[in-house]
Amino acid sequence: MTGPDDRRTGDADEPIFATCGPDGASLRCQVCGAVNEIVHDEAPSMAGYGIDSYARCTRCGSVECSDPVFGWRASPAQWPSASLQEQPKPTTASSDSGESADGRPS
Fold this sequence. Notes:
106 residues, mainly beta, four-stranded antiparallel beta sheet, two-stranded antiparallel ribbon, 6 strands, elongated
């Protein structure tokens, strides 16, 4: 199994979602690799004609939109997200510091 494509550059010229699976019925996010975690909806366009549509990945937040005025556009999210990048590093106390592993004096 391969991981998600390297889309960290935010290239908006490539589709974010692609079909996958043996029957081609599943959608896969090209940014984070989520499969079938995409929500999409359509509504009458505010331009007065046509349809506005969007598809959004519930895992990373990447979006593809389409409307009659601006056409198709993609907004890839930064992945991994900032909250995943800034996880605290585990700390360990050394035995010569005079403290126990939880930081209290021994």
